[in-house]
Recover the amino acids of this structure.
């Protein structure tokens, strides 16, 4: 969990991801310790879309937002924090990975007291208006007692100054991040999908029993339906069978030729070389292969004739005696 402005983070170890567990963690670590958020962005996991969580958000008056499916960049701030937190904890967790809870609090403290790359201030200072008190600070501390009224006035002034700095730095960081993102996605800037366009959909779901190495991620074709917004599109299968869904534009690719297969279009056949096109190549490229051709092209495996010599340290090892002992036991 992360605050969008101050970048403050919360991380809670949970035994499971049930809706009841997530709701309790949200109430105990966000609502009771900080404040009820005005808006909350989550992914489309079942734990967040459950009726229990919907009722909790309704009672608290939280405006629930959802990320685009299979597009973690929508909630990139939390995803980036998760990667940093994993890197910190992985340096201290034991070999069985069962003592995470022992290091989580100090890992969060280290992250909160570090200067954030976007705001240029620490998360602690952005929230509390002062620098965190650490053992090193206590060693050289000469601060004198102050009146409560003077401390409150100074804290209010400091928070206004820090928040103004944070807002300015965030705006600059967002501008730079947008330029970097647009530079990596020039293709999607030039291809403006419109209502009625035929597109392919990039799917990361691996069907059961399939190998990820040979999985072809583009599926479809789909038709773009009327939708408001520049980043998310509502699509439905071109065949008319199946329900419509809302996806991010980065997962779509315009169909150049509706008669072409996306797999054949994007993944060239390993047989399509500059060599002459033989009869065997045409049969291999054809989606229908006759049984007679399969029988003639069948490769009969034979036992290897290579002589295998065991290392010298196994000279006294008798495999026959070992098999007899195993049979007796």
């Amino acid at each position: 969990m992360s605050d969008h402005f101050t970048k403050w983070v919360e991380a809670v170890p949970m035994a499971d991801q049930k809706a009841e567990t997530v709701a309790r963690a949200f109430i105990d670590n966000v609502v009771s310790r900080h404040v009820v958020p005005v808006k909350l962005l989550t992914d489309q996991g079942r734990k967040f879309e459950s009726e229990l969580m919907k009722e909790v958000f309704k009672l608290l008056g939280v405006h629930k937002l959802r990320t685009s499916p299979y597009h973690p960049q929508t909630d990139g701030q939390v995803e980036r924090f998760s990667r940093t937190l994993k890197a910190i904890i992985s340096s201290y967790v034991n070999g069985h990975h069962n003592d995470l809870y022992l290091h989580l609090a100090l890992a969060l403290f280290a992250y909160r007291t570090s200067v954030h790359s976007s705001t240029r201030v620490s998360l602690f200072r952005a929230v509390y208006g002062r620098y965190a008190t650490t053992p090193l600070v206590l060693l050289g501390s000469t601060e004198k007692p102050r009146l409560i009224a003077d401390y409150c006035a100074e804290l209010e002034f400091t928070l206004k100054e820090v928040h103004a700095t944070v807002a300015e730095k965030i705006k600059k960081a967002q501008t730079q991040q947008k330029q970097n993102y647009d530079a990596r996605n020039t293709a999607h800037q030039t291809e403006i999908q419109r209502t009625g366009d035929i597109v392919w959909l990039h799917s990361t779901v691996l069907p059961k029993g399939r190998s990820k190495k040979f999985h072809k991620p583009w599926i479809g074709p789909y038709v773009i339906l009327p939708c408001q917004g520049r980043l998310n599109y509502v699509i439905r299968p071109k065949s008319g069978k199946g329900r419509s869904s809302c996806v991010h534009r980065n997962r779509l690719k315009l169909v150049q030729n509706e008669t072409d297969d996306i797999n054949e279009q994007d993944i060239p056949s390993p047989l399509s070389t500059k060599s002459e096109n033989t009869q065997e190549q045409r049969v291999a490229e054809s989606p229908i292969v006759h049984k007679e051709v399969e029988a003639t092209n069948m490769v009969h495996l034979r036992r290897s004739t290579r002589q295998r010599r065991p290392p010298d340290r196994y000279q006294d090892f008798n495999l026959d005696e070992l098999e007899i002992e195993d049979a007796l036991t």
